[in-house]
Amino acid sequence: MLGTGLVAPAEAASASTSSTPIVVGGDGNLAVSAGVAQGFIAGIKRFNDAGGLDGRKIDFVGFLDDGFSPQTNLTNAQELVESKHVTVVAPFLSEINTPATATYLAKAKVPFIGWAVSSGFTSDPKWGWGITGLQDNPNAQSIAGIQQLLEFTHNAKTPSKLKVALIGENNASVIATIDALKGDDEYAKTSVVYSGTPMAVIGTTNYAPYAQTIISSGANEVTEVLDAADAVGLAAALKSAGYKGIIMNGTTYLPGQLASQPSEAAALNGVLVEDEFPADENNTPATKQAIKDLEATGQAPYLSTGVSVGYWSAILLEQMLKATLAKVGGDPDKVTGTTIDSTVNSGFTYAPPLAGGISTMYFPAEETLPTGCLTLLKVSGTTYKQVYPYQCEGVANLAKGRSYNLKTGK
Q1: Which residues pair with 370 in a beta bridge?
Q2: What is residue 365's DSSP assignment?
Q3: If you compute the radius of gyration of the chain from its CA atoms, what whole number of angstroms results?
Q4: Measured between alpha carbons, how far is 7 from 377 in angstroms, rounded to an integer?
Q5: Mean per-residue pLDDT, 320-339
Q6: Which of 52, 163, 251, 371 is a Cys-bridge partner for 133, taking CB atoms 3.0 to 4.6 Å apart?
């Protein structure tokens, strides 16, 4: 478990303040989300230093690793609720969690906040909220990714020249993501020459057979829907087998790490990374503040994927807490899991506190739609070069050829 209790000594309570901490703990897999606890700790520091929610500070009790086990993901949630007595589970990030965890948390009246890349976020009633909306809706695709890729490859007018291979790990969340990406490609009229989820969730060491399957398909662009370790392993195998096309994934934004990992850097050199979050290279007021917050808690000043999940989960939670306080009449002790859920699901707008952070989100619409925002980067040696800055191009039901209204979800 990572993380420590970060609640300051209790302050004297009054009619409008409270010293009762808001207990929060995280659940998910560290193989995907390394740095997630550190990001959350950085995200709550200024909130706590300013007095929290009228005296109620966030007490982060750590992040429990589920080791890619759906059952452990559930027992982690049970431990957080029944032993740690959390008000909210955050950050929440697991590729393999099932609706069982979401159902348990809903019955316990404990909301969860994180990266909505698993089936738990699709469960009803909705007690889980994503920091980039819902990524697992196969009927709602971000337009930004395919547009950026076509522009980068100079195929905006000749999309069929892009011969795409989509490969992922064999779990329900990745299968849904692959389906969504196929929708993108069909809409854009690229040529999908391979699509599959043959790789085990954990334990893969020989990537050569997967590389050969992709090369045999004739693909000139590979989209890896894999965790960071598998994405690195497959990229290395593709290069070793002589593949010369484009490789892209959404999990190997690892700033500050490549200089000390020469084999990893070699595998990723030239690879495109679609980062769903604002990256260090965006150099916006929000990313500059995030880096300051990381440094203030003794962390490395990099917004890697895991760190970003933790950090933005904290920022979203803080705004939800403040909105709930206003809704319950200013009594911080009335801010509970139940009142937070009621506030968000009755209509809550997340507005970025600083320019250049994660985008504006409208709840409950974001419970069914992604935000459609990306930063596109390219690995160059041991650094990342920004190809396209963080931008939001909208969300569409590509099968029906229509855009969604992000405020209403329709």
Answers
A1: 133
A2: G
A3: 21
A4: 37
A5: 97
A6: 371
